[in-house]
Amino acid sequence: MDPSKNGDDIPSDQIDAFADMFVLFNKTTKKLHRAYRTLEEKFDSLNQKLQETNLELRRSLAEKDRVSNYLNNILESLSSGVLVMDLEGRITLFNRAAGEIMEYPTVEALGRPYLEIMGKEVSWESTALCTLKTGVPIEYGEKEITTHKGAVLPLGYSTSLVTDGEGNLSGVVEIINDLSHTKALEEEVQRVNTLAALGEMAATVAHEIRNPLGGIVGFASLLERDLDLGDPRRRLVKKIIEGVGSLNQIVTSLLEYARPLRPRFREIDLVHVVDQTTRFFEMDLHQEENGITILRNVPPDPVLCRADSEQLGQVLLNLLHNARQAMPEGGEIAVEIGKHSFESDGEEEGVFVKIRDRGSGMTEAVRAKLFTPFFTTRESGTGLGLATAKKIMDAHNGPIHAQSQPGEGACFTIVLPHSSRTPVNGDR
Q: Where are the alpha helices (DSSP H) in 227-341?
């Protein structure tokens, strides 16, 4: 069969139709190609926009993190404690200062019930839960809280409602401040005001009491002179004179306590002052024969400090007399001199004197009032010895404190700034 004859068998109309279809196919292909290119351009444009959007989103997230970190750093740098409680009464934020005040680790506080951390022995009205229930913020209040380690602290606090961006309630924020230092300053101001009033009263007492006392002693002495030596009434007259002497001593102590102190500071050898004072005190001990001895633990070399030697000697004598009165049955009084560091890094040094007795000790309630004027636990005491010692040490800008437990005796410590200069003649 001749192949060349096969083409003659295809009708011309089919060939025309096939040609038209081929032309249409080419047109369609070109349209699809153009559509693909358009779609590809749109894809590239959308992809570019998506990349730009992602970049902007990353920038926004980075800025959000920066602002969040910045605000968190501010929150952690605050000296005030800040805590946030959610609607279920659980802590969701607890900054560093709050952890230090409450003596509770910040991480462990998160998620715990508010009352477990902040509500121990605290009235419900002074808690953030009250604000959450009533919807009434507390602008300022004061309360006492018990820390995680059992310490009792005075706190100043305020509460406020927390809402989200749509105004819906999401919790309560409470801000707390430790008022211990403020309360101590208030007590110090009150003490100073009391001393000022006491000074005014002392001047009046001196004139109103000392003159009559002098008259009583004078008349009692005349009466004693007129009585025979064997008259039993002479003993009563002596009691009168002794009582007047005791009253006069109280008035004198009151005047000395109320009188403004004007220390004459100079470089002194603390070892010399302590040795001189203790030897003077031992003379009284030998006369009384009360079984009390002095044990000195002092360095062989001079220990220099800047102080008023006479006033410092009075402080030491008051502390020694206090130790003697604490041991009516006799015992040992230990006196120690050493170095003291005012700062934790040891840059500023001082010297200390410790006077320790073996008496019955003191309760915490007694220690809290030790340096209060006229506070005494002894019937014959005036309550001005330790108060005077405290006043002198305040004038020297040096602390005085006591350590004691019932049945374990007491130890009083005074601290003075250290001096490196060699004392000149007369400074000892």
A: 233-258, 270-288, 309-325
**d(C-alpha 23, C-alpha 258), whole Å:** 123
Which of helix, strand or coil describes residue 388?
A: helix
372-417 pLDDT tens trace: 777 777 766 667 788 888 889 988 888 899 998 888 889 999 998 8
Place of tokens 């002596």: 238
Q: How far apart are CA 25 and CA 337, in angstroms?
A: 113
In the numeric block, which tokens belong to residue 424? 């000149």
Quote the crossing angle between the two packed helices 233-258 and 385-395, to the nearest 10°: 20
- DSSP string computed for 176-234: EEE-HHHHHHHHHHHHHHHHHHHHHHHHHHHHHHHHHHHHHHHHHHHHHHHS-TT-THH
What crossing angle do the helices spanning 180-226 and 233-258 adopt, rounded to 10°? Answer: 150
pTM above 0.70, yes or no: no
Give Cβ neighbours of residue 79 (< 8 Å, ≥ 6 apart): 97, 177
Residues 262-290: tens digit of each pLDDT: 889 999 999 999 999 999 888 878 777 77
**In the sheet where 91-94 sits, what is the strand order?**
91-94, 81-86, 169-178, 152-163, 138-146
- Determine how many CB atoms are found less than 10 A away from the CB of residue 253: 17
**Which residue type, as a one-letter code, is found at position 281?**
F
Spatial strand order in the sheet of 331-341: 292-297, 331-341, 349-357, 410-417, 400-404
pLDDT at 426 over 70: no
| Exposure of 360 in the CB half-sphere (CA atoms within 13 A) | 8
User: Is the pLDDT confidence value at 165 over 90?
Assistant: no
Count of C-beta atoms within a 10 Å radius of residue 277: 21
In whole angstroms, how far apart are CA 32 and each of 35, 233, 261, 345, 357?
A: 5, 142, 107, 83, 108
| Tokens 């997230």 sit on residue | 61
Higher confidence at residue 171 or residue 51? Answer: 171
Q: Scan for tokens 């101001």, then name that residue.
A: 189
Question: What would the two tokens of residue 60 be?
Answer: 């926004």
Compute the residue count for the chain: 428
Q: Say how far apart CA 115 and CA 110 lie, in whole Å.
A: 13
Residue 150 above 50 pLDDT? yes
